[in-house]
Automatic annotation (TrEMBL):
One matching Pfam family: AAA_16
Molecular-function annotations in GO: adenylate cyclase activity; ATP binding
InterPro entries on file: AAA_16, P-loop_NTPase, TPR-like_helical_dom_sf
Record's keyword annotation contains Lipid metabolism: no
Sorted UniProt keywords: ATP-binding, Nucleotide-binding
Protein name (record): NACHT domain-containing protein
GO cellular component, one term: cytoplasm
Transmembrane segments: none
Domain of life assignment: Bacteria
Keyword Transmembrane appears in the UniProt entry: no
Residue ranges constituting the Orc1-like AAA ATPase domain according to the UniProt record: 27-186
Length: 904
């Protein structure tokens, strides 16, 4: 097809597309026109939807022409295709490689900054090595797009046939689309609505619900078809002939243009007598008619067309020739004939004129021949140096045949897919490897790799595969240990903590004494120790104490056991001095040991987390902050932008909450929740973030906001089986109490207390249920209230930190007799002045000031209240600010404090 013919056809495809073109014009103007007037560019999303052949491609081509011509935009273009749908990030690479390929490596590094190694493999500019977190890869692509969009030239991104784009690209696009309103980028996407069944949910959600309203393409009217016929036959066209063209094509622009072109090729006159011949010509444009037309071109041309259909898009003539079994000269001749027949187009790289043609030809290949050609294509792609991942889409189509070499190729491809952040693509390769099947001695290893590939995306899938792997022979001892630990992690990530503990215990019991067995025992105690309703808590605490007590921390297994022992002691409220001593032995000169870092896969991030949490609750806030900031850096550098990074933000929020910097705490917690929500609902990360944010909002005095957030995020019983910070049931009781719902609060706090006391967990900072319960029952049963409070004070004294003792005394004063309350509050202030937890000190100062005021000790009261007000403002504790100001106003009325003290 000549360039002139293609322009004519594209123009014909735009008949009756005035409104559709207007939508594109307006979108380009919003992006480009505002920039020329010195205002901010306005990006956005434009969707074109319609059946095959309705002109979506022509609309995108016209949008591209306008953007590059009138708008002087940088235009990125990609097209999905059936054949490349299994290739992860194929559409992403089509979009960005034309920008990245011409520049040098230093320029690419500068453009991508810290995301170069993370997103580079997915973009095709860095060799695939290791394993990348999919969310981190998407964040890296986001960074690249944002940088490109900030350049002087407006940026337009066009994606045709998005229904056939690979899942990884569509997932990125679905998430990134939420940022289009704040990014000076226009994204124009076309798709067929009837073929969206297999697209990722986030993309389906984008085009079906939350995205811009799609522009719906309709078939041409009879009048438009009549005009097309008249343009092609300017001398004269009979009305019956024109009507028959419309009847045969149904107004489909592509089929209309093709039918008119074939009528001209056959020399038909546009008269009524020729109309009966149009149906046969129309049939030759699609399905079996197209195949028959191809076969008339000869067996060599047919074979070359088959090879092209197997290769898909961006067809390299040399690969097609190799696959068709012919030399370069014959291949060039076949390509010319296919161009003349309007089946192929292009010079350097070939492509089908329309996806409908590619689909029809691919479907016409005899199944056995198609399978053999895919096998040959895989070999050709590999020989061309394009890598195992590129060959894998062909290997997936080959019939199973006990080919151990194919199994190895698929395993290599799976590793490459993991290295670009595409675990689903890796899973497909490994599942196909199992069907081959692999040699019996390799089956367990393939199952292990398959399970690990799904760990971040589907813990239940990981569980199934790893359990099967552990049941098979030929599993090396090293692989059995790794599979067991990964299986326990998958159970834990799926909130199945009992199963996680049980599986490592079962394997530990069959493991000979040594480092391997101790590692499994440590994992067993880890998963047991973070369960809320652990059945044998006291016995488990004794066992881990016996195991950990004599250990000096010589290796990472010993350090892990010491960390677990310290965490258990902290939750139980045992002597904090001893707790800190355990943590010091678990660290090396105050830092994580080599092999126990945040991104280490042997032990996971759970062990460093419990070290940092324990330090936070034992008033070692600076050390805890250093650890969690190190976590954020490590995860960001490694591209771990999912649950790990969300947890790190939550734990930094914990540190700032303990320190009393409540606004900083809230910011970190909201960021952690934002990161966690990208992973889907109901995960353990949501519980930690939600509990900490509710606790922080209550500390700020924003009770209604805390309740609204709790309702929106499903914070209600049954709570997660894992320990969260703070204790979920205790927090729920405190939230009810803050709302004045005392009866409900009493029931919630009593239930929480029973479970915690049965398990010997007495930390009054992590779970202050008894102190809150004392306040809830004080009016009706003051004696019980004092008993509860005094017992909590004793537990706090055992733990021994100034924060625990001071805060327990402050809370106990709320239910004590007035003279006792003053004594307790004075002691609380003394302890809390030595504590790094400024919010708890602020509470004590304000409470002491109010109590002094009520006791008539006005000068002392005013002094305490002034100090408390200043501290409350520094903590961003709005509720305490209001309380302190109200009390100071009373002091003003008494003539003690200057009037200026009540207003800031």
């Amino acid at each position: 097809m000549s360039g002139h013919q293609r322009e004519q056809n594209a123009s014909a495809a735009l008949f009756e597309r005035k409104l559709e073109l207007q939508a594109a014009d307006e979108a380009v103007q919003r992006l480009c026109g505002t920039a020329t007037e010195g205002r901010s560019r306005l990006g956005g999303l434009l969707l074109y939807r319609g059946e095959a052949g309705l002109g979506k491609t022509a609309l995108l081509a016209e949008t591209r022409r306008k953007a590059m011509g009138e708008g002087k935009c940088t235009v990125l273009f990609a097209r999905g295709s059936e054949s490349t749908q299994p290739v992860p990030f194929h559409v992403v690479r089509q979009l960005f490689q034309p920008v990245l390929a011409p520049i040098s490596e230093p320029e690419r590094r500068e453009l991508l900054a810290g995301w170069y190694e993370i997103a580079g493999p997915a973009l095709g500019i860095v060799p695939p090595v290791g394993q990348q977190d999919p969310q981190g890869v998407r964040d890296g692509i986001d960074f690249l797009v944002t940088k490109l969009a900030r350049r002087p030239e407006p940026l337009v991104m066009l994606i045709d046939d998005a229904h056939w784009a690979d899942a990884e690209s569509l997932t990125w696009l679905g998430y990134f689309a939420a940022r289009l309103r704040e990014t000076p980028l226009l994204a124009v996407i076309s798709y067929r609505p009837e073929e969206l069944s297999d697209v990722p949910p986030v993309f389906h959600d984008l085009v079906a619900t939350r995205g811009a309203r799609p522009v719906e393409l309709r078939p041409l009217t009879p009048e438009s078809v009549n005009r097309l016929v008249c343009n092609a036959f300017p001398d004269h066209s009979d009305a019956p002939f024109c009507r028959e063209v419309w009847a045969v094509t149904g107004g489909n622009p592509y089929e209309t243009v093709e039918l008119i072109a074939k009528a001209k090729d056959r020399g038909l006159k546009p008269v009524e007598e020729s109309a009966p011949l149009l149906r046969d010509l129309g049939a030759a444009s699609r399905g079996s008619g197209l195949v028959a037309r191809l076969e008339r071109l000869g067996p060599a041309v047919t074979r070359f067309a088959w090879a092209s259909a197997v290769l898909g898009t961006e067809i390299q003539p040399s690969l097609a020739a190799n696959l068709a079994g012919m030399g370069p000269a014959q291949a060039a001749e076949c390509a010319d004939k296919l161009r003349h027949a309007r089946i192929l187009a292009g010079a350097i790289d070939l492509e089908f004129v329309h996806p409908l043609i590619a689909t029809a030809i691919y479907a016409s290949i005899p199944p056995a021949t198609r399978t053999a050609m895919h096998g040959q294509a895989a070999w050709s792609v590999t020989e061309a140096g394009l890598g195992a991942a590129a060959a894998s889409r062909h290997l997936l189509e080959v019939h199973p045949d006990h080919d151990s070499e194919l199994v190895e190729q698929l395993r290599v491809a799976a590793r490459e897919h993991l290295a670009v952040g595409a675990p689903d693509a890796a899973r497909r390769c490994l599942e196909r490897a199992l069907q081959e099947p692999p040699p019996e001695e390799e089956r367990a290893a393939v199952l292990y790799e398959l399970g690990c590939s799904a760990l971040l995306t589907s813990p239940p899938t990981t569980v199934n595969h790893l359990r099967t792997a552990l049941s098979l022979p030929h599993l090396t001892e090293e692989l059995r240990l790794e599979a067991t630990y990964r299986l326990s992690q998958a159970y834990a990530h799926n909130s199945q903590l009992r199963e996680a503990a049980a599986v490592v215990k079962e394997q530990a019991d069959r493991t000979p004494p040594g480092p391997g067995r101790m590692r499994l025992q440590a994992a067993h105690y880890l998963w047991q120790g973070i369960q809320v309703e652990e059945q044998d808590s006291l016995a488990r605490s004794r066992r881990i104490a016996e195991l950990a007590e004599p250990l000096p921390g010589r290796d990472n297994t010993e350090r892990t056991l010491l960390a677990l022992r310290g965490f258990d002691c902290m939750i139980r409220g045992e002597d904090a001095v001893q707790v800190v001593e355990y943590m010091e032995r678990a660290l090396v000169e105050g830092r994580l040991a080599d092999g126990m870092g945040w991104t280490n896969t042997e032990w996971g991030f759970e062990v460093p987390s419990i070290i940092g949490i324990t330090l936070a609750y034992t008033d070692r806030l600076d050390q805890s902050e250093e650890l969690f900031k190190e976590a954020v850096t490590a995860f960001e550098v490694s591209g771990w932008s999912g649950g790990h990074l969300a947890f790190a933000h939550d734990f930094l929020g914990l540190v700032f909450r303990r320190r009393g910097e409540l606004d900083e705490a809230e910011a970190f917690l909201r960021e952690g929740l934002r990161l966690g929500k990208r992973l889907g609902p109901g995960l353990p990360i949501h519980w930690d973030g939600a509990c900490l944010l509710i606790d922080t909002l209550l500390a700020r005095g924003r009770v209604d906001e805390a309740q609204a957030f709790a309702e929106e995020n499903g914070f209600r019983a049954p709570y997660t089986p894992a320990i969260v910070l703070p204790d979920a049931a205790s927090l729920a009781g405190r939230l009810l109490l803050a709302q004045g719902r005392k009866k409900e609060a009493v029931a919630e706090l009593e239930a929480a207390g029973r479970k915690l006391e049965e398990r010997g967990r007495h930390n009054t900072i992590w779970a202050p249920w008894a102190l809150d319960l004392a306040v809830a029952v004080a009016d009706e049963d003051p004696e019980r209230a004092r008993t509860l409070a005094d017992k909590a004070v004793r537990h706090a004294a055992v733990f021994g930190t100034d924060t625990a003792v001071g805060d327990a005394l402050r809370r106990a004063a709320l239910v004590a007799e007035p003279h006792e309350a003053l004594v307790k509050l004075e002691k609380a202030v003394v302890h809390l002045r030595r504590s790094p937890c400024k919010y708890e000190l602020t509470e004590a100062l304000v409470a002491h000031g109010v109590a002094l005021l009520e006791a008539g000790k006005l000068p002392e009261a005013a002094e305490r209240l002034r100090e408390g007000l200043e501290a409350a403002e520094q903590c961003a504790a709005d509720g305490l600010v209001a309380t302190a100001r109200k009390a100071l106003a009373s002091a003003v009325c008494e003539g003690v404090a200057p009037a200026g003290d009540t207003v800031r």
